[in-house]
Each structure stands twice: as C-alpha cells, then as structure tokens.
Amino acid sequence: MDLQTAEIKVKELQTLLNQYNYEYHVLDQPSVPDSEYDRLLKELIEIETQYPELKTTDSPTQRVGGEILDMFEKVQHQSQMLSLGNAFNEQDLRDFDRRVRQSAGENVSYVCELKIDGLAVSLRYEEGLFVLGATRGDGSIGENITANLRTIRSIPLRLNKDLSMEVRGEAFMPKRSFEALNKLKAEKGEDAFANPRNAAAGSLRQLDPRIAASRNLDVFLYGVSDTGETGVESHSEALDLLDTLGFKTNKERKKCANIEEVLEFIEKWTSERPNLVYDIDGIVIKVDSLDQQQELGTTAKSPRWAIAYKFPAEEVVTTLKSIELSVGRTGVITPTAILEPVRVAGTTVQRASLHNEDLIREKDIKMGDQVVIKKAGDIIPEVVNVLAERRTGEEVEFHMPTHCPECESELVRLDGEVALRCINPKCPAQIREGLIHFVSRNAMNIDGLGEKVISQLFSKNLIQDVADIYKLTFEQLIGLERMGEKSANNLLEAIEASKVNSLEKLLFGLGIRHVGAKVAKTLAQQFVQMDELMNAGYEQLTAINEIGEKMADSIVSYFELEEARALIDELKAAGVNMEYTGPKRVSIEQSESIFAGKTVVLTGKLEKLKRNEAKDKIEALGGNVSGSVSKKTDIVIAGEDAGSKLAKAQELGIEIWDEERLIEELNV
Ligand SMILES: NC(=O)c1ccc[n+]([C@@H]2O[C@H](COP(=O)([O-])OP(=O)(O)OC[C@H]3O[C@@H](n4cnc5c(N)ncnc54)[C@H](O)[C@@H]3O)[C@@H](O)[C@H]2O)c1
C-alpha cells in the first residue's frame, strides 16, 4: 500500500471506528459485532505501524475507552484504567509470552482469569468506607456512578479493615437477567440490548438508581490500583487480599507456570463457557509478579504484562455473494445465501438458509451485501442483518423465480403459506430428496446410503422410486464412484436389515404430507397393519386424538393414489415389513388421565377404598404407585393418620390429596 492510499484508508477506518465507538460506549447500541470492530482496529494498527506519520493522537488506536458523558460528574482515577491488548490465537499468545520473557526473564508465571463480558468499574474506599464508584471513561477520567453501584449487593459498603484504596473490577449482568430484561423490553416495544455487556453499561448509566437496582447486576473485582501499602507482591496475592477484605472475586482463576498451562486453561474454558451463568468473551492472562509487571511497563493504551485472549467470534461480517435455490422433498423452494467463506465460532461457514422470500424482504437482503452472520444455537448459520450503510450501489435485488429451477414447471404459493412450491410430482429434485428422506435415520435408517450415493444412483437411473432400493444389485453398486466391494456388501446388508423395521419407520419414510415421525408412530400403533391404515377412512382417522383434519385428509388422499398403492405392493413383494412391532400403545383413556406418567404415593389409612384397589385403579390409568416419597413423586394421597411420608411431601412441596379427591379423580 502506498502512502497516499494508506492515508485515505486510515481516514476511512478512523471515521468508522469512531462511529462504532460512539454507538458502543455512549449509546450502548453497537451496530456491528465486536469481531468486526476488532478486525478494523487491527487493520488500522497495521497501517499505522507501517506509516507512523499517519498516527494522530486522536486515532482510535490511542484511546482507552469511550466518551465521557456530561450527565455524570467527572472522576479522576488514582491511576490509569487501561485497556488490554488482544490475542486471537495460539500464535498471538506465544508471541506475547516471548515478549514477556525477553524483558522479564525466563522465570515468569502467569495468572489466568475469565474475561467477564461487562464493563470496567473503579471503586474507592476511604477508611474502609465505599465513597466513590466510577466507569473507566477515557482511562484517566471516568463518570461518577456511585449511586448506581451502591445498588449492587456484592459491592461491600464497608470493608473488613479500615483501609483506603481504589479497586477495579468488572460489573456485569448475568445471562438470565439479560434475557428477562430483553423480554420485558420486547413486551414494551422497546429496542433490545445487543448483549449483556451493553445492558450492564446501560443500566449503570441511568440517572435514577432505582432502575439500576432492578437490573440484577453483579460484580467481580480483579485488581487493586495501588498495592503500595498492602505488602502484596503478586497479582494472585492481590486477588486473595480482595477476598479477605470482603470483595467478590472470580474463583475460576488459575496460576500457570508457563504458556502451555495457559493454553490448557483456555482450551478448558472454550468448551465449558456455555455452562457459566454469565457471559465471558475471553481469558485474561497476567504476569503474576508485581516486580516483573513494573519492569514490563505499559504502552499508552495497555499494560505489556497482560493480554486478553478473545474466543472465536460468534457473530462476524462477510459478503453475501449470491442466492442459490434448492427444491425440497415437498417441492418447497428454499433460497440459500452463498457467502464469502468466513470463520464463525470456530468453523468455516459458506452457506446460510434464507428460508423464504418474505424473510429476504424483511431483512432487506441484496446480493453483494455485507451481512452479519451468526450460528444459531452454535450450529446452523444464520444471516442476522444487513449492513445497509456499507452499500456501494452495486448490490442486486433478489427475486424468486416463477418456475422450478429443476423441472421448469410453474411455481405456486399454497393458501396461507409463505413458501413457493413446485407441485409437479415428477420433478426430479423432489424425487431425489424423497429418496434421501426414505433412507434417513428416523425413516428406514439405511446406513451407507447417503445423499451422494442416492444422487448417483438416481442420475444413473438405477433407482426411480423407493421400491427400487430393494432391487439394487452388487454389480450396480460396485460401478459407483468410491464404492469398494466391502462398502457395496455392507450397503446391501443395511438395505436387507431395513426390511424388518417396524411400520412407523416406513410410514414416515414415505413422506406423506403432514405425517412426521411422531404421527407415523401414532398411526402405526393404532392400526398395527399397513392394510388397516390404507383402508381407514377420514372418520376413523380423525377419531384418533393426535390426528387432525388436515392430516386425515392428506393420509386418505395419499392412499387413494394408484401409484401409492402400487408402491406399497412392490415394497411388500420385496419383503418389507408392513406391521407395527414396537411397544404397545397406551390407551387414549390412559394417556388423557390425570395420572398418566405420574408417580403417586399412598400413605395413611384409606376409609372407603382398599389400598390395593386404589393402586390398581391408578395404574390402570397410566400412573405408577411407589412406596416412598422423593423429589420424583408427583402426588401424595394422604389418608387418616398419615405420618412421615406426608411430612416429607409437605417439605418437598409435593401435591397432596385426601381420599375424597382420589375418589373423585378415579371416578368410582
Ligand atoms: N461492536 C462495536 O461497535 C464496538 C465498538 C467499540 C468497542 N467494542 C468492543 O469493546 C471492547 C473494547 O473494550 P476494552 O477497551 O474494554 O477492551 P477489552 O474488552 O478488549 O479488554 C479490557 C477490559 O476487559 C475487562 N476485563 C474483564 N475481566 C477482566 C479481568 N479478569 N482482568 C482485567 N480486565 C478484565 C475490563 O473491563 C477491561 O477494561 C472490544 O471487545 C471491542 O470489540 C465494540
């Protein structure tokens, strides 16, 4: 990059970063994920390192925190509240370790702490009394938020010793409180907070402390600003001191003898992090010895003796290159975003389902857009939103086609549906997807017959419908790509084994509309034989509790089809089992009863019913009768002179009935 381009780029990045800083620190409403902010900041640092003459004192790389608001009184910190340098991978950490050892000598040990995703606060005590609490602000001057901090229960208002000191920590909002708060905001039609960090910051910047008090904030202390008088020689001792003074510190910290132990700690928390009741966004690694810390010193922005390792981002920005269409088993056309490959939460993502056209309109997605991607439930990638302000004008609007991309027949929108469908029963895409569904795990569960093999068999015309699967020969299979003798034999065995599956697997595999795995099971249990089901009428079907009108209609019309009956005959001829062989169904009477699946304990003397009689009746209605009361007990029936079992039930808060109530429920 030449100087001129660099200058333009630096200006551009500074403007963007300043805007993002303002949104994040002042408004508590970031418009891009942190990973994007971090990426741009890194880019700016790189250019400024290459061209130091472009580095200005007001560059975002030179700032510690955010803006200081006029709303609150300003507070001068006793010592600077710095930010931390970032590490994003093992190499960054090893580089940090090398730099540390170069300056502080080989004999270095570290303390690893969870990096709580909240905001830094400073608490001042005078002669043991909490007198002042402040935000970090720009590092030297923060905002006085004492009244709000006093509402946090874990902040001691008086210490165990009459010390005068300033301590530092992280105020945060536990995950549950964050969810509850956002739910409340949604109910009121207000904007949700982007993350618990912004929610905590927003709560502590309220003028009315009653609001902060209602937000369930908490705090972990992680440092003492000046250890001079305390006799403490290391960071771990400082944390222990905080404990003895009555502060809340995070107990998940660990002293590490070298960088390998640090890496182990990081690995452990990368996987255990979801189990915590608060969010963490990384691990902070600090040199333990205070002497060594001094020797290492600080830069304008952060200490050289500490670094923050950031977990792989869960939300990132990438380009949506194009939108691809696929035809599903039921003919539904699904648009999928094709993305510039990007790492999200540790894996590379290049596609994300967009579900339907309405969603594309709602999120205003165009091809060529910069989009925020996240993994929903950390598995399925999802487009969260578009960064509309980054548009260049080159982006292209997407329109759903009018004809099927596979068979070119006209697409339709069925009543009340958002999805477009191809309704041509001969559409090759639908047939292929139907075959894939038939062999899938919840259906016939044929191992070794995955999407790739099915697609090959289908395109070679070796299978046209599911019955053809049972006609496949060794010679046909061995001719496929990457199919050795052993795999071909295994596959034939798996196909053979699937013939004895219980009826519900076949029913689900046929892909009858509205018949999911659960409905298939109900039908199989109810009718036991395929023939019985095929001959069942609408009335007979709707008489079953779980079968609605739509389902009944769909089942009846499916079996009325000539092709469907012919297919079943072919499957029968191939030796596929047509009978339900699973456990017996609980009768409707049982499943509807108040006792269904409940554990009941009888205690004391019953007046009208005999114990055994009561037991049999409860069991006939699907309940289990047990002899002892535990947390698993649902109902305790207490007769005359009931003793310890009744007492225990009361203690555990279990539902208690008298004999009258039992008689009423048993209807005897
Ligand atoms: N999305 C956006 O638009 C946007 C804009 C600006 C900043 N940001 C984000 O804000 C952050 C920058 O904030 P920062 O300067 O506070 O740096 P930082 O979050 O990277 O790290 C420093 C902070 O970590 C916290 N921390 C938590 N646990 C700690 C512990 N045990 N010991 C020491 N410190 C601990 C402290 O508050 C400390 O100030 C980055 O994550 C950045 O992505 C995002």
Automatic annotation (TrEMBL):
Q: Which domain of life is it from?
A: Bacteria
- SMART domains for the chain: BRCT, HhH1, LIGANc
Q: Does the keyword Iron-sulfur apply?
A: no
Listed InterPro entries: BRCT_dom, BRCT_dom_sf, DisA/LigA_HHH, DNA_ligase, DNA_ligase_AS, DNA_ligase_CS, DNAligase_adenylation, DNAligase_N
Ordered alphabetically, the record's keywords are: Dioxygenase, DNA damage, DNA repair, DNA replication, Ligase, Magnesium, Manganese, Metal-binding, NAD, Oxidoreductase, Zinc
- Active-site annotation: 115 (n6-amp-lysine intermediate)
Assigned protein family: Belongs to the NAD-dependent DNA ligase family. LigA subfamily.
Its recorded name reads DNA ligase
Q: Which organism is it from?
A: Cytobacillus solani
